[in-house]
Amino acid sequence: RKLPPGPMALPIIGNIPQLVYQSWKHKGIVPAFEFFRKQYGNVFTLWLGPFPHISISDYETNHEVFVKNGNNYKNRLLPPLFEHFNAGFGLLFANGEIWTEMRRFTMLTLRNMGVGRDIMEQRVLEEIDARCAELNKEEVDGKIIVNHGEFLDLMVGSVINSILVGIRFDKHNKNDFFHLKHLTHQLNDVFTIFDMMAPVWIVKNFFPKRYAKTKSGMNAVSDYIGRVAEQRWEDVKSGKYVLNEENPKDFVDAFFIKMEKENKNGGHPAYTIKSLQYVLSDLWLAGHDTTAVTLASGFNQFMNHPEVMRKAKEELMRVTNNGSRSLSQNDRIETPYFNATVAEIQRHASVLNVNFWKTSDAPTTINGYQLDSGEILTAQLGGLHANENIFKDADKFNPDRFLENEKLLHQLIPFGIGKRSCVGENLARSNLYLMFGNLLLRYDIKPHTKLPSTADQLPYTSAKIPDRSVNLEFVRI
Ligand code: HEM
Questions:
Q1: Ligand 1 mean position to 444 CA, how many Å?
Q2: Nearest to residue 287, comparing CAs of 86, 422, 439, 120?
Q3: Do residues 345 and 437 touch, judged by C-beta distance below 8 A?
Q4: Ligand 1 centroid vs 424 CA: distance in angstroms?
Q5: 343 CA to centre of ligand 1 in angstroms
Q6: Residue 33 C-alpha to ligand 1 middle, in angstroms?
Q7: Ligand 1 residue neighbourhood (C-beta within 6 Å)
Q8: Of 280, 259, 288, which Cα lies nearest the Cα of 164?
Q9: Secondary structure string (H, E, C) spanning 457-473
Q10: For 300-332, how does the pLDDT look when each residue is reduced to its tens digit (9 = 90+)?
């Protein structure tokens, strides 16, 4: 009775039957959350099995809890299977000292890449140029048929790989990327609420295929990218590769520079090759699909809302003198409609159907409810972005909502909020602005044969999957 309200829970299984029923009835887990929110308010409790989980679906309460009292909520409830594979390392599925140190280091390193000569923007623009040059070679009868899912996947993967280990994917190593993608996509199939909660021994003994898929997906990136890092470390030690302290060329360089400094002072458990492999893998896994899914959803929205695409394009053309130069992040201030469009794409795509859960470190009061330490709660982003009280006609794709009410932009939190918010937010924002914008500037785009759907293809999993089955037609401008 001390907990925020929610549906009546049954012993052991809690509210799982109601959640399954409402997800089935409303065609997805996010509309089911919205159903519970309407019944019980912005802060409600669902018992997922024998444990109460508190979802917060409005901005003010999330800010109060995760920002003002953020120190009490920095621990993620670690899904046992993922904790098992990551062994206390990395960013996504770790807590404690190693996570704190790695988060601080990662945020600083990515921030440094975005200031001064802005390596981040440079790499994204170079990637767009190279990818478009490749695409243009496929032109037949004045148009290029593009599988946008695959095209965007590769472009985003290449940028992340180049920021992390300085290697982009070109025609020589493209297959490495598709192999990686195949393995990591297996994780999507097993990334359900069940996998987030089930004990390791149950998955290992009763669902061995699921266990094996998760393992190979988790190991794929750390093996691939870890090999590059290991080789570079060997080269650093043998003097074949010289680190430039003033100007690290990528994330791995920055890590080695810090590791050498720490080693001189006796070493630090966060700065080892093993730790680096897990961090690289987490950055890759957390950064790739989220960005590629948002881009694919965005193009699906453009196809279904050509008037929005036209208005955005007109604005971009005006700012870049009819596309005579590339769009840069410095143009943001001059592109209010396009900014609102990207915001609406992110709201609609809201890439996590169920956000990661946190545990509280100390007793707290939320909306008058006194909670013990150890309670499980989250900023339920999917629910928040579909909250009808904040975003009227939330189902509709309508960029104008952000121009009509500027305050709405603050209530949009696709990157989460507080101590566990996204560390790749700046990189993701650069990718979205520059990729959407520069592709619109270079091509007229329309659907090939039929319209892609804008609905989530698997609404019952924890992460969103957009329709990537329909090809698009690109015509050079
Ligand atoms: C459109 C793209 C992206 C979206 C929507 C997104 C969203 C999120 C969200 C919602 C979280 C969890 C917040 C929470 O637990 O409350 C998160 C965490 C994280 N994201 Fe992103 N992300 C994106 C891109 C990226 C990129 C490009 C990277 C890295 C290169 C990245 C790396 C991470 C990592 C490592 C975490 C875990 C942070 C921690 O636990 O300390 N993300 N992201």
A1: 31
A2: 422
A3: no
A4: 6
A5: 16
A6: 22
A7: 76, 91-92, 103, 160, 282-283, 286-287, 290-291, 294, 351-352, 355-356, 379, 381, 414-416, 420-424, 427-428
A8: 280
A9: CCCCCCECCCCCCCCEE
A10: 999 999 999 999 999 999 999 999 999 999 999
Rounded-to-integer distance, Cα 324 and Cα 87, Å:
51
Give the alpha-carbon dihedral of 32, 452, 348, 81, to 10 degrees. 60
Q: Phi, psi (5° rounding) for residue 321?
A: 55, 60
Find, among 228, 192, 213, the residue nearest to 23 by Cα. Answer: 192
In this structure, the strands spanning 144-146 and 75-76 are: unpaired
Q: Where are the beta strands (DSSP E) in 320-448?
A: 358-359, 364-366, 369-371, 376-379, 443-447
Give me the mean pLDDT over the 250-276 stretch.
94
Model-wide pTM > 0.90: yes
Instruction: Give me ligand 1 centre to Cα 32, in Å.
Output: 24
Query: Where are the alpha helices (H) located in 272-399, listed in sequence order?
Result: 273-304, 306-319, 336-349, 381-385
Mutate which of 77, 89, 255, 290 to test ligand 1's pocket (most atoms within 8 Å of Cβ)? 290
- Helix (H) or strand (E) holding 451, with range, is none
Q: What is the mean pLDDT of residues 120-142?
A: 94
Of 74-78, 80-84, 448-452, minimum mean pLDDT range: 80-84
The alpha-helical segments, DSSP class H, found in 173-272 are 174-189, 193-197, 200-206, 208-238, 251-264
CA angle 104, 105, 107 (to 5 degrees): 65
CB atoms under 10 Å from CB of 54, counted, come to 23
Q: Over the stretch 407-463, which tens digit does the pLDDT of each residue have?
A: 999 999 999 999 999 999 999 999 999 999 999 999 999 999 899 999 988 888 888
pLDDT band of residue 116 (cuts 50, 70, 90) is: low
Going by C-alpha positions, the residue among 467, 321, 346, 324 that lies closest to residue 401 is 346
Average pLDDT over residues 82-86: 87
Calpha distance 330→385 (Å, rounded): 28
Residue type, 85: F
Do 162 and 130 meet the contact criterion of CB atoms below 8 Å apart?
Answer: no
User: Distance (Å, rounded) from C-alpha 398 to C-alpha 305?
Assistant: 9
Percent of the chain with pLDDT over 90: 76
Closest residue by CA, ligand 1 atom 24: 287
SS3 state at 48? strand
Residue 422 assigned to a binding site: yes
- Dist. CA 244–CA 4, nearest whole Å: 54
Q: Give the C-alpha separation, 159 to 142, whole Å.
A: 28
